[in-house]
Amino acid sequence: MGLTLFIGNKNYSSWSLRPWLALKLARVPFEEVLIPLYQTTTRQDILRHSPTGKVPALKIDETVIWDSLAICEWAAEQAPDAQLWPQDTIARAVARSVSAEMHSGFVGLRSALPMNIRRSAPPRALTPAAQDDINRITALWRDCRKRFGIGGPFLFGPPTIADAMFAPVVHRLNSYLVEVDDDSRAYIAAMLALPPMVEWTEAGKREPWIIEESEAA
Ligand SMILES: N[C@@H](CCC(=O)N[C@@H](CS)C(=O)NCC(=O)O)C(=O)O
Question: Using a 6 Å cutoff on CB, does residue 55 contact ligand 1?
Protein backbone atom coordinates (compact mmCIF):
# COMPACT_ATOMS: atom_id res chain seq x y z
CA MET A 1 0.00 0.00 0.00
CA GLY A 2 1.47 3.40 -1.03
CA LEU A 3 0.78 6.13 1.50
CA THR A 4 1.51 9.81 0.89
CA LEU A 5 0.44 12.62 3.18
CA PHE A 6 0.30 16.06 1.55
CA ILE A 7 0.85 18.80 4.10
CA GLY A 8 1.41 22.56 4.24
CA ASN A 9 4.26 24.43 5.94
CA LYS A 10 5.09 22.88 9.29
CA ASN A 11 5.47 26.30 10.88
CA TYR A 12 1.99 27.45 9.88
CA SER A 13 -0.26 24.59 8.78
CA SER A 14 -2.31 23.71 11.84
CA TRP A 15 -4.62 21.32 9.99
CA SER A 16 -1.66 19.37 8.59
CA LEU A 17 -0.10 18.78 12.00
CA ARG A 18 -3.07 16.81 13.34
CA PRO A 19 -3.11 13.77 10.98
CA TRP A 20 0.69 13.83 10.65
CA LEU A 21 0.89 13.38 14.41
CA ALA A 22 -1.82 10.69 14.44
CA LEU A 23 0.00 8.70 11.74
CA LYS A 24 3.28 9.01 13.67
CA LEU A 25 1.59 7.92 16.93
CA ALA A 26 0.10 4.96 15.05
CA ARG A 27 3.57 4.15 13.65
CA VAL A 28 2.08 3.87 10.20
CA PRO A 29 4.92 4.52 7.71
CA PHE A 30 4.10 7.19 5.12
CA GLU A 31 5.79 9.53 2.71
CA GLU A 32 5.17 13.22 3.19
CA VAL A 33 5.01 15.89 0.51
CA LEU A 34 5.09 19.49 1.69
CA ILE A 35 3.34 22.06 -0.49
CA PRO A 36 4.22 25.59 0.71
CA LEU A 37 1.04 27.61 1.31
CA TYR A 38 0.25 31.06 -0.13
CA GLN A 39 2.59 30.78 -3.11
CA THR A 40 1.38 31.58 -6.63
CA THR A 41 1.16 27.90 -7.59
CA THR A 42 -0.13 26.58 -4.23
CA ARG A 43 -3.75 26.13 -5.24
CA GLN A 44 -3.05 24.31 -8.48
CA ASP A 45 -0.38 22.18 -6.78
CA ILE A 46 -2.79 21.08 -4.03
CA LEU A 47 -5.68 20.56 -6.47
CA ARG A 48 -3.58 17.99 -8.30
CA HIS A 49 -3.87 15.80 -5.18
CA SER A 50 -6.86 17.00 -3.15
CA PRO A 51 -10.37 17.86 -4.46
CA THR A 52 -10.84 20.69 -1.92
CA GLY A 53 -7.62 22.48 -2.80
CA LYS A 54 -6.67 22.20 0.86
CA VAL A 55 -4.16 20.23 2.85
CA PRO A 56 -3.87 17.81 4.54
CA ALA A 57 -4.73 15.02 2.12
CA LEU A 58 -3.72 11.40 2.43
CA LYS A 59 -3.31 9.40 -0.76
CA ILE A 60 -3.79 5.67 -0.19
CA ASP A 61 -2.73 4.18 -3.52
CA GLU A 62 -5.22 5.96 -5.84
CA THR A 63 -7.73 6.99 -3.15
CA VAL A 64 -7.61 10.40 -1.46
CA ILE A 65 -8.77 11.12 2.11
CA TRP A 66 -8.99 14.90 2.31
CA ASP A 67 -10.01 15.78 5.85
CA SER A 68 -7.74 15.89 8.89
CA LEU A 69 -10.10 14.06 11.26
CA ALA A 70 -10.95 11.41 8.64
CA ILE A 71 -7.22 10.74 8.24
CA CYS A 72 -6.84 10.45 12.03
CA GLU A 73 -9.72 7.93 12.08
CA TRP A 74 -8.08 5.96 9.30
CA ALA A 75 -4.80 5.86 11.25
CA ALA A 76 -6.67 4.57 14.33
CA GLU A 77 -8.24 1.79 12.28
CA GLN A 78 -4.92 0.82 10.70
CA ALA A 79 -3.16 0.43 14.03
CA PRO A 80 -5.62 -0.73 16.71
CA ASP A 81 -2.73 -1.57 19.05
CA ALA A 82 -1.70 2.10 19.15
CA GLN A 83 -5.04 2.86 20.86
CA LEU A 84 -5.46 6.23 19.22
CA TRP A 85 -8.91 6.35 20.82
CA PRO A 86 -9.29 5.51 24.54
CA GLN A 87 -10.32 1.92 25.28
CA ASP A 88 -13.10 2.82 27.71
CA THR A 89 -16.44 3.53 25.97
CA ILE A 90 -17.24 6.65 27.99
CA ALA A 91 -13.72 8.06 27.68
CA ARG A 92 -13.83 7.34 23.94
CA ALA A 93 -17.16 9.16 23.54
CA VAL A 94 -15.77 12.19 25.40
CA ALA A 95 -12.55 12.05 23.33
CA ARG A 96 -14.66 12.10 20.17
CA SER A 97 -16.70 15.03 21.53
CA VAL A 98 -13.68 17.19 22.28
CA SER A 99 -12.09 16.26 18.93
CA ALA A 100 -15.26 17.22 17.08
CA GLU A 101 -15.53 20.45 19.10
CA MET A 102 -12.00 21.35 18.03
CA HIS A 103 -12.61 20.32 14.44
CA SER A 104 -15.66 22.53 14.01
CA GLY A 105 -15.09 25.39 16.43
CA PHE A 106 -12.80 27.84 18.17
CA VAL A 107 -12.84 30.21 15.21
CA GLY A 108 -12.11 33.15 17.54
CA LEU A 109 -8.81 31.62 18.60
CA ARG A 110 -7.95 30.26 15.18
CA SER A 111 -8.42 33.57 13.42
CA ALA A 112 -6.79 35.80 16.07
CA LEU A 113 -3.76 33.59 16.77
CA PRO A 114 -2.73 31.66 13.64
CA MET A 115 -0.30 28.84 14.31
CA ASN A 116 3.23 30.20 13.97
CA ILE A 117 5.63 27.85 15.73
CA ARG A 118 8.65 30.12 15.32
CA ARG A 119 6.99 33.00 17.12
CA SER A 120 7.79 33.79 20.72
CA ALA A 121 5.89 36.95 21.62
CA PRO A 122 2.38 37.89 22.78
CA PRO A 123 -0.24 38.76 20.15
CA ARG A 124 -0.76 42.42 19.31
CA ALA A 125 -4.32 42.02 20.65
CA LEU A 126 -6.01 39.08 22.27
CA THR A 127 -9.63 39.43 21.10
CA PRO A 128 -12.49 38.65 23.53
CA ALA A 129 -13.57 35.81 21.22
CA ALA A 130 -10.07 34.31 21.34
CA GLN A 131 -9.95 34.63 25.14
CA ASP A 132 -13.38 32.95 25.41
CA ASP A 133 -12.07 30.06 23.29
CA ILE A 134 -8.93 29.78 25.42
CA ASN A 135 -11.06 29.65 28.57
CA ARG A 136 -13.25 26.91 27.12
CA ILE A 137 -10.28 24.89 25.82
CA THR A 138 -8.33 25.02 29.07
CA ALA A 139 -11.48 24.09 31.06
CA LEU A 140 -11.97 21.14 28.72
CA TRP A 141 -8.32 20.11 29.12
CA ARG A 142 -8.56 20.26 32.93
CA ASP A 143 -11.78 18.24 32.88
CA CYS A 144 -10.32 15.50 30.63
CA ARG A 145 -7.08 15.34 32.64
CA LYS A 146 -9.00 15.05 35.91
CA ARG A 147 -11.52 12.45 34.75
CA PHE A 148 -9.53 10.37 32.29
CA GLY A 149 -5.85 11.36 32.52
CA ILE A 150 -4.68 8.88 35.12
CA GLY A 151 -2.54 6.72 32.77
CA GLY A 152 -0.24 9.46 31.46
CA PRO A 153 0.24 13.22 30.98
CA PHE A 154 -2.15 13.59 28.01
CA LEU A 155 -5.90 14.33 27.87
CA PHE A 156 -6.87 10.66 28.18
CA GLY A 157 -3.64 9.39 29.75
CA PRO A 158 -1.59 8.02 26.82
CA PRO A 159 -1.60 10.14 23.62
CA THR A 160 -4.76 9.88 21.48
CA ILE A 161 -6.39 11.60 18.53
CA ALA A 162 -7.83 14.16 20.96
CA ASP A 163 -4.26 15.33 21.68
CA ALA A 164 -3.46 15.39 17.96
CA MET A 165 -6.53 17.59 17.40
CA PHE A 166 -5.39 20.08 20.06
CA ALA A 167 -1.69 20.02 19.09
CA PRO A 168 -1.93 23.28 17.10
CA VAL A 169 -3.61 25.00 20.09
CA VAL A 170 -0.71 23.81 22.25
CA HIS A 171 1.65 25.57 19.83
CA ARG A 172 -0.48 28.71 19.76
CA LEU A 173 -0.67 29.06 23.55
CA ASN A 174 3.05 28.38 23.77
CA SER A 175 4.29 30.68 21.01
CA TYR A 176 2.00 33.63 21.85
CA LEU A 177 3.05 33.29 25.52
CA VAL A 178 -0.58 33.03 26.67
CA GLU A 179 -0.99 32.75 30.44
CA VAL A 180 -2.79 29.58 31.49
CA ASP A 181 -3.42 27.63 34.70
CA ASP A 182 -0.87 25.15 36.07
CA ASP A 183 -2.65 22.03 34.76
CA SER A 184 -2.84 23.42 31.24
CA ARG A 185 0.81 24.50 31.44
CA ALA A 186 1.80 20.95 32.42
CA TYR A 187 -0.25 19.53 29.55
CA ILE A 188 1.36 21.95 27.08
CA ALA A 189 4.83 20.93 28.31
CA ALA A 190 4.00 17.22 27.93
CA MET A 191 2.72 17.77 24.40
CA LEU A 192 5.75 19.82 23.35
CA ALA A 193 8.03 17.03 24.64
CA LEU A 194 6.25 14.26 22.70
CA PRO A 195 8.93 13.00 20.23
CA PRO A 196 6.90 13.46 17.01
CA MET A 197 5.88 16.95 18.20
CA VAL A 198 9.56 17.78 18.71
CA GLU A 199 10.33 16.51 15.20
CA TRP A 200 7.57 18.65 13.61
CA THR A 201 8.48 21.73 15.69
CA GLU A 202 12.17 21.59 14.80
CA ALA A 203 11.38 21.14 11.11
CA GLY A 204 8.91 24.05 11.25
CA LYS A 205 11.46 26.35 12.81
CA ARG A 206 13.95 25.59 10.02
CA GLU A 207 11.55 26.46 7.18
CA PRO A 208 12.40 29.48 5.02
CA TRP A 209 8.87 30.66 4.12
CA ILE A 210 7.22 33.68 5.73
CA ILE A 211 3.44 34.13 5.51
CA GLU A 212 2.90 37.83 6.25
CA GLU A 213 -0.79 37.41 7.13
CA SER A 214 0.09 34.97 9.93
CA GLU A 215 2.90 37.20 11.15
CA ALA A 216 0.51 40.15 11.59
CA ALA A 217 -1.31 38.64 14.59
N1 LIG B 1 -11.38 20.95 7.34
C2 LIG B 1 -10.11 20.79 6.66
C3 LIG B 1 -9.35 22.11 6.72
C4 LIG B 1 -8.10 22.14 5.88
C5 LIG B 1 -7.52 23.53 5.71
O6 LIG B 1 -8.19 24.58 5.91
N7 LIG B 1 -6.24 23.60 5.29
C8 LIG B 1 -5.53 24.84 5.02
C9 LIG B 1 -4.09 24.78 5.54
S10 LIG B 1 -3.91 24.69 7.27
C11 LIG B 1 -5.34 25.04 3.53
O12 LIG B 1 -5.12 24.08 2.81
N13 LIG B 1 -5.38 26.28 3.05
C14 LIG B 1 -5.04 26.57 1.70
C15 LIG B 1 -6.12 27.33 1.02
O16 LIG B 1 -7.21 27.52 1.62
O17 LIG B 1 -5.87 27.76 -0.12
C18 LIG B 1 -9.39 19.62 7.32
O19 LIG B 1 -9.78 19.25 8.43
O20 LIG B 1 -8.48 19.01 6.74
Answer: yes
Q: How many helices (H) and strands (E) does the chain have?
A: 10, 4
- pLDDT-derived band at 117 (thresholds 50, 70, 90) equals very high
According to CATH, the topology of domain 83-201 is Glutathione S-transferase Yfyf (Class Pi); Chain A, domain 2 (1.20.1050)
With a 6 Å cutoff on the Cβ, whether 56 touches ligand 1 is: yes
CB 37 near ligand 1, within 6 Å: yes
CATH class of 3-81: alpha beta
Q: How far is the CA of 35 from the centre of ligand 1 (A)?
A: 12
Q: Indicate the average pLDDT of the chain.
A: 97
CB 54 near ligand 1, within 6 Å: yes
171 class by beta-carbon count within 10 Å (0-12 exposed, 13-18 middle, 19+ buried): buried
Distance CA 58, CA 140 (A): 29
pLDDT at 171 over 90: yes
0.85 cut: is pTM over it? yes
Q: Stretch 113-133: mean pLDDT, rounded?
A: 96
